[in-house]
């Protein structure tokens, strides 16, 4: 399967700021260089106790990071669906029908309004409850129907993150490898560094060595130097 990224309008769903870079940083770099449009729909961000040096990051800090990353990857637009603490790390407490409506039609970057050609979402086997909720909402919103009545992106993918491998039912390897140039890998690493509150030294699932090692592993599996792994949910030829 080959994709002419210059012709694509890509919509990436990220439960939290940094998920899009962890899962799709290389693809975003490659696609933008080719001339693609890239949009990122975030769901939640709030004040969070974390493993950063100071042990805490604020929503304002995270928004500042997003703006830097957006400029770095040259996103065409991004949107935060549910800012604040109410649903941050608690998307599983929100009615599923309301999340589906955000994804399908209510958000400025909804599938109905944006009409993307490519949709990329988290994989449902993530251990993280917010990732599971977003994955299921996107899956429901892209359910089979008459394409004349509901927009059907021709390519639907699920991205992987190193931490997802913790799940015992996540051992099925990706069935699509996007080959990356060294510059795409570097762009991904720089983007992750811009999320200063979320990047960590090795050993950590968000360390530079982890991201570079996973890129080398996925590339090797496709016979190239570097790659990103995805699961194909739909591919309309």
From TrEMBL:
GO biological process: glycoside metabolic process
One of the Pfam families matching this protein, by short name: PIG-L
Keyword RNA-binding in record: no
UniProt GO MF annotations: hydrolase activity, acting on carbon-nitrogen (but not peptide) bonds, in linear amides
InterPro entries named in the record: GlcNAc_PI_deacetylase-related, LmbE-like_dom_sf
Superkingdom field: Bacteria
UniProt keyword list: Zinc
Protein name (database record): PIG-L domain-containing protein
């Amino acid at each position: 399967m080959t994709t002419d990224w210059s012709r694509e309008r890509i919509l990436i769903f990220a439960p939290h700021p940094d998920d899009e870079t962890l899962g799709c940083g290389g693809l975003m770099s490659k696609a933008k260089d080719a001339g693609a449009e890239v949009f990122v729909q975030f769901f939640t961000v709030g004040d969070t106790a974390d493993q950063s040096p100071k042990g805490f990051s604020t929503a304002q800090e995270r928004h500042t990071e997003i703006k830097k990353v957006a400029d770095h990857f040259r996103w065409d637009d991004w949107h935060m669906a549910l800012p604040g603490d109410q649903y941050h790390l608690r998307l599983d407490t929100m009615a599923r029908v309301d999340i589906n409506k955000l994804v399908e039609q209510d958000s400025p970057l909804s599938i109905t309004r944006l009409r993307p050609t490519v949709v990329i979402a988290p994989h449902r086997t993530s251990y993280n409850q917010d990732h599971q909720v977003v994955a299921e909402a996107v899956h429901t919103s892209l359910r089979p129907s008459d394409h004349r009545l509901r927009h059907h992106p021709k390519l639907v993918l699920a991205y992987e993150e190193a931490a997802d491998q913790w799940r015992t039912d996540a051992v099925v390897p990706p069935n699509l490898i996007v080959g990356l140039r060294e510059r795409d890998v570097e762009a991904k690493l720089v983007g992750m560094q811009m999320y200063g509150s979320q990047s960590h030294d090795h050993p950590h699932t968000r360390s530079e060595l982890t991201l570079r090692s996973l890129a080398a592993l996925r590339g090797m599996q496709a016979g190239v130097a570097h790659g990103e792994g995805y699961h194909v949910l739909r591919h309309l030829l």
